[in-house]
């Protein structure tokens, strides 16, 4: 037995839960921070080993899941293998970069619990398990809003509708698709649930509202992994009729352009970030619905880029906010002189997210635009317009926050060691991934190919045939 | 003994590697917050520029010796998956080599000038990081043999230019102007990206190389395009928009005087000599496409002519030397574009050489003028002291017109041809108003759902509740 035979994914999930329970009992914020970071680090290490095992095509030697559920309901496959460690890394870096002033406000135990749910969601290969985890995932944000004494009605209203549509939609979709083509109303319900979770127009206000009221760190971690997109791939894409995909595509494209335009005119940094995120999430959906190998590869690459680049951008913004409070984008703040490293990281991560050459986002944008124009020139123009506006929004925010004034300060506002570690790690991934993109793109292309193959099989073949996994798992020993 | 091809390959690699390593060195030092001394920065800069220049000159010499007109250097495929590949290829031909040499020459001169001009300036390191990025962008754009590589270089030039315009960042005006420049550049980038993708997928060979795409029947300037006829007009128009944005042609001319907010060395080399010509360079590179349609040729001539006229009128009423020089520069660029348009319209490839020589000469002249601009008043005073009288004032260009026309032309010039007003009233203000209206609608909707004021961000003031307030 080699170290890679160990079921690292399951250990990561158990560690996350144990960590959440253990840290919740610690009252001292500094101690909670240390333990929280320790557990996040351990979870990341386990997910990384799980990815390595998948990369080496080694299935775990034994599995707890088969004893509990009778089959593997959580596993790494071609689609989620790189996403799971990326999300764990983002959680780790968010925990590491938490400023001392925010340690009391940032709940490490809830963060660990949410991380466990996110990782489980992204590794769910069984549809009902995914539906359950997506439903469970709506609870920690609600508790966060409650604990902070913020209004919850917008969030609860949207998420309640999402949960109902998801459960009812999937139950009916699953039941009817066994007998023939899935029922139209079930497909519509499922599609609405997915669009709502992704923040597509007009059901996008819960995301901006969430960023208004949540702590920035938790706000970021809840949305950045794009679980709605994952649900779309697992639940809708393999079997949904073409008109559903077109509908998702149209709504997503409109949302991508609209959110990019809104990001340009925002007067506050968090809202700006929320719209920037919405635009990117919608662009990923646009790539998915076009359902060509190129657009799927582009969308998968963009998804990974969103986690790393936009995650890093959010962390940088959070670090700036920790020093200066909520940031208005009305006047120039001139913060560059006090924290040049933060300014550089802000620009680097922001530009990476909009596909600047030499960064991780470049190839994903190229692939997406390329595929979109070939599939449908109008969609291609929409995608280019959205990326153009996002680029303008990022540089506008940079100019407003870091330039245009001389900001006098009596205190040291430079980047701290822990923050530097976090942003430099992400910067290394962004630049390294931008220069050496080939392995990443090839891996995403394999996932795209598998998805297309499975869709062809399911849509074209006897519906009574035994269901097969969407992305084949490594064979168990 | 290495063959000539091998020598050219390694020299070509050196031309690209020199600015790349400069960007890596200065950029990483900034990212890691490592302070480099002015001396180190200057030495690195000199080494990179001299290495790149010598390598480019050596390639030119070898090409002349061997009689080769076209040398493509292939660094292999960066990404290759079904239906998509991204090759990194560079080409040394009659168009790219002069521009690459000019880029190294002028940036090297200005780098030496800036090392004194910017001495002890707070943003010394930042200036040279952007300078290096600009140089890399320019070299990559000039030598690119695939449209995707050209796009990457194009973006580097755009970002470094916008950030250099906002270089003096303690005042609000430079960043505002930087944002304007960036916005126009993004539009130009979007047009180029669309054109690049269409070019990649809709021509006969299915490759994105200029060799395959624009060199049927001969190398530049004689080649013809293999682009499918139905795509010539849309691709040509996209390329013209991209070129117009980058070169400040009508209706995007307003960014050029705004760009003068940056330090004089960057104004000189970037907007006065090199960056401003990139649009014309793109038109020259894509001239086989433009000559495939009379409409495209006519459009290029019309845009170039109107740019030259408006820039001349506007330049003659400017009251500061940098603005006057920038419009004079734009007028010349307009003429260069007319030359390119005529070469396409009349199918006279030789006229493209005229445009290329015009670019080279104009770039050198403007660099000298911009660099001399800060000391111009002193020189005038010395001249007047020497002759013991005021320098004679030449009659203005508007003096020959009747009073009402003169006033109208004067106002037209002062308002910079109303081009900025046009863009503001037709695009920027409607865009902002529409999205602010949507924002207000969203606020009402979330307020309704919440049952109270839903936006904490409405109460945000700069630095409220910050760490600094507590101290």
SSE blueprint:
The complex is a heterodimer of chains A (477) and B (471).
Chain A (H helix, E strand, L loop, with lengths): L7 H17 L4 H27 L8 H6 L13 H14 L11 H16 L3 H10 L2 H9 L5 H27 L4 H15 L6 H9 L2 H8 L3 H10 L5 H24 L3 H22 L2 H32 L15 H14 L6 H16 L1 H26 L14 H19 L2 H23 L17
Helix pairs in contact in A: 1-2, 1-5, 2-4, 4-5, 4-15, 5-6, 6-8, 6-12, 8-9, 8-10, 9-12, 9-13, 10-14, 11-15, 13-14, 13-18, 14-15, 14-18, 15-16, 15-17, 15-19, 15-20, 16-18, 16-19, 17-18, 17-19
Chain B lengths: L3 H28 L6 H29 L3 E12 L2 E10 L2 H22 L6 H20 L3 H19 L7 H29 L8 H5 L14 H19 L7 H5 L4 H11 L3 H8 L1 H4 L3 H22 L5 H25 L4 H23 L3 H12 L15 H12 L4 H32 L16 H4 L1
Antiparallel strand pairs in B: 1-2
Helix pairs in contact in B: 1-2, 1-4, 2-3, 3-4, 3-10, 3-15, 4-5, 5-6, 6-8, 8-11, 8-13, 10-14, 10-15, 13-14, 13-17, 14-15
**Helix residue percentage of chain A:** over 70%
Strand content of chain B: under 5%
- Count every beta strand of chain A, where a strand is a DSSP E run of 2 or more residues: 0
Return the string of H and E elements of chain B. Answer: HHEEHHHHHHHHHHHHHHHHH
Report the major sheet of chain A: none
Radius of gyration of chain A: 21 Å
**Secondary structure category of chain B:** mainly alpha
Mean pLDDT across the residues of chain A is 88
- Percent of residues in helices of chain B: 55-70%
Described by the principal axes of the CA atoms, the overall outline of chain A is: globular
- The total count of helices of chain B amounts to 19
Largest interface: A-B, 86 and 70 residues
**For the report, how would you describe the main beta sheet of chain B?**
2 strands, antiparallel
Mean pLDDT of chain B: 88
Strand content of chain A: under 5%
Radius of gyration of chain B: 24 Å
Note poorly predicted spans of chain A: 461-467
N- and C-termini, Cα separation of chain B:
71 Å
How widely separated are the two ends of chain A? 11 Å
